[in-house]
Design goal:
twelve-stranded antiparallel beta barrel, 4 helices, 2 domains, 297 residues, single chain, Porin
């Protein structure tokens, strides 16, 4: 009888037993990794701690769970309480380029990318300029300004609005304004790898160098891929297309970045822009190869 009671009570007694504590040395390492805020480092330390002290696996899992919950709560509070000028971060680039197509020159270029993300909204702002002047003659002059707000209605889905201004006399237009609204989807969303896809209707108004103008409804599609290969090397691919009855445009930017010191990185990029119906005397495809220094902030 007593034996039977003991056997029945054993699971309850085991359930109430506290998990083995994390050995002090391992706990110090885990606490240091958590203090750094680096998810990858925390996961690595926790992995080896569990392998070394399997009896403390439950305590390690509980510590990780508490850390992640606290971190998520702090992040949510920061996003909710942020002011309009808070949470902006981005990248500034300055470098040189080599062009083929309508121009065959070397010159300087500058780019500024700004991003701001809250619980529901994401804002993207881009300013870019390429300029070349040789012997008093301008042979390359390209300017771009773009702004895109996103409203996130689910963890992966969002709606977007996009507006863009471009000017490039050597591609045949003095100004081109584009606006678009549509739907976006984060097809891949994980640490070190992301892919956003967008599609929607658009409207474009173009003033050409031959003094003609053209306004048209268009369809817009885009993709934005960011992939962190290692701690110091990353690649990105951004592409967009405006498809319309007259002069459709496809552009693509492929880039490779390598961290140098702190926020400073070396960046190589290759840009292709295709115009289906360029003005008389212009070719359809222009390419730009850039080598630049990028500063992240």
């Amino acid at each position: 009888m007593h034996l039977r009671i003991a056997l029945l009570a054993a699971p309850l007694l085991l359930a109430n037993t506290d998990p083995a504590p994390i050995p002090p040395a391992m706990k110090a390492m885990l606490d240091a990794a958590m203090a750094s805020g680096n998810e990858g480092e925390v996961a690595t330390v926790a992995k080896y701690a569990r392998a070394t002290a399997p009896e403390a696996a439950s305590a390690i899992a509980a510590s990780l769970d508490a850390w992640r919950k606290e971190r998520a709560a702090k992040r949510e509070a920061t996003l909710r309480n942020a002011g309009v000028l808070d949470l902006w971060h981005g990248r500034a680039e300055l470098g040189g380029y080599l062009t083929t197509g309508n121009t065959h020159d070397a010159g300087v270029s500058g780019t500024v990318d700004l991003n701001r993300e809250t619980l529901r909204w994401r804002h993207k702002l881009r300013l870019a300029a390429d300029y070349k002047r040789s012997a008093g003659v301008v042979s390359r002059e390209h300017y771009l300004a773009a702004y895109e707000p996103n409203f996130k209605f689910s963890p992966r889905g969002y709606v977007y609005g996009a507006t863009q201004y471009e000017s490039d006399r050597f591609l045949g237009y003095t100004s081109r304004y584009s606006t678009s609204v549509g739907a976006g989807y984060s097809a891949i969303k994980q640490p070190g790898l992301s892919l956003d896809l967008e599609v929607g209707p658009a409207y474009r108004d173009t003033s050409f160098t031959d003094h003609t103008t053209e306004s048209s409804i268009a369809a817009r599609g885009s993709l934005d891929l960011d992939w962190k290969l290692t701690k110091t090397i990353s690649v990105s691919q951004a592409a967009s297309a405006y498809v319309q009855h007259y002069n459709s445009t496809v552009s693509s930017t492929t880039a490779l970045s390598a961290k140098l010191i702190g926020p400073l990185a070396a960046r190589l990029s290759y840009v292709v822009q295709y115009e289906s119906m360029p003005t008389l005397g212009r070719v359809s495809t222009d390419t730009t190869s850039r080598a630049s220094l990028a500063y992240s902030f």
